[in-house]
């Protein structure tokens, strides 16, 4: 036990659930490296003890200076489960939607979603993004129309007032919809930063039976999501580390899918040359 923490009483069930991770850490030195990176990024820092959600007790190691310390082993366990699932989803060719609209999360969500080729929401969750998908697609069509007007220099045919209105419409739609351009169908899974902040997204996902993965802090309700990853959801470095790991899993899954398609593809037909005509 670290000397500066006060240990929270754990139930036998919660202690037993950690055994697989401890075994994994011994077998895989990479896990130890990830844990070190997590600690350096402050992933283990929770909120003030007065703000905690009692449902988070199994994921809390202790407290320091009235701040909860999250159990980094539980963070690793949750992240590995999420990575395995995301890799399988990506290998199957399904979409994964990254969601994080809080100030600390937006940049990491956009960067990592683009890196792994998945849609994202980093500014504002529009009501009906999932449950009214047809309307969202129609708005994306409108966004593309506005961009064609601009790119083809057709804006000059409108009055200055109309140009100003169209530019304002484009800026607003681009800010809210740009990350959804590649979402041509309902996603299989949502990756979320702070479920308390993204309740509307979670509500729509549950309604459609979409799996949810979330980075959850000590003030969160883990029952809101299917695959919780306990960790600091306010620190920029913490968010960047977790989202980067999840995006890596998506990329790995896509690579597996590509290699499987290559292996299963029929061998190209061998072209046979016709015999040369006789010169005699």
TrEMBL record:
Q: Where is this region: Disordered?
A: 250-280
Record InterPro entries: Ribosomal_uS2, Ribosomal_uS2_bac/mit/plastid, Ribosomal_uS2_CS, Ribosomal_uS2_flav_dom_sf
Against Pfam families, the record matches this protein to: Ribosomal_S2
**Where do Basic and acidic residues bias regions lie?**
250-264
- Gene3D superfamilies under this entry? Glucose-6-phosphate isomerase like protein, domain 1 (3.40.50.10490), Helix hairpin bin (1.10.287.610)
Q: Which GO terms describe its molecular function?
A: structural constituent of ribosome
GO terms (BP aspect): translation
Q: Which GO terms describe its cellular component?
A: cytosolic small ribosomal subunit
UniProt keyword list: Ribonucleoprotein, Ribosomal protein
Keyword Ribonucleoprotein listed: yes
* Family indicated by similarity: Belongs to the universal ribosomal protein uS2 family.
Q: Which PANTHER family match?
A: 30S RIBOSOMAL PROTEIN S2 PROKARYOTIC AND ORGANELLAR, SMALL RIBOSOMAL SUBUNIT PROTEIN US2M
- By what name is this protein known? Small ribosomal subunit protein uS2
Origin species, per record, is Rosistilla oblonga
């Amino acid at each position: 036990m670290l000397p500066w923490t006060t240990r929270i009483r754990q139930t036998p069930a919660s202690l037993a659930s950690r055994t697989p991770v401890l075994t994994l850490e011994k077998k895989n030195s990479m896990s130890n490296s990830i844990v070190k990176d997590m600690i350096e990024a402050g992933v283990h820092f929770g909120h003030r003890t007065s703000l905690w959600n009692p449902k988070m007790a199994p994921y809390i190691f202790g407290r320091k200076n009235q701040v909860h310390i999250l159990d980094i082993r539980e963070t690793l366990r949750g992240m590995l489960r999420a990575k395995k699932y995301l890799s399988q989803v990506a290998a199957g060719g399904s979409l994964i939607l990254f969601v994080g609209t809080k100030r600390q999360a937006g940049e990491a969500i956009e960067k990592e979603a683009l890196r792994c080729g998945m849609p994202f929401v980093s500014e504002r969750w529009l009501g009906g993004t999932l449950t009214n998908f047809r309307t969202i697609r129609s708005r994306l069509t409108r966004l593309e129309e506005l961009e064609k007007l601009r790119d083809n220099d057709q804006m000059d045919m409108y009055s200055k007032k109309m140009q100003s209105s169209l530019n304002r419409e484009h800026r607003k739609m681009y800010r809210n919809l740009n990350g959804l351009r590649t979402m041509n169908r309902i996603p299989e899974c949502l990756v979320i930063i702070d479920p308390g902040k993204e309740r509307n997204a979670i509500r729509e996902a549950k309604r459609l039976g979409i799996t949810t993965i979330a980075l959850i802090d000590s003030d969160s309700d883990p029952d809101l999501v299917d695959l919780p990853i306990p960790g600091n959801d306010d620190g920029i470095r913490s968010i960047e580390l977790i989202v980067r790991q999840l995006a890596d899993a998506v990329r790995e899954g896509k690579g597996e899918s590509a290699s499987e398609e290559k292996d299963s593809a029929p061998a190209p037909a061998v072209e046979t040359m016709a015999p040369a005509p006789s010169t005699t």
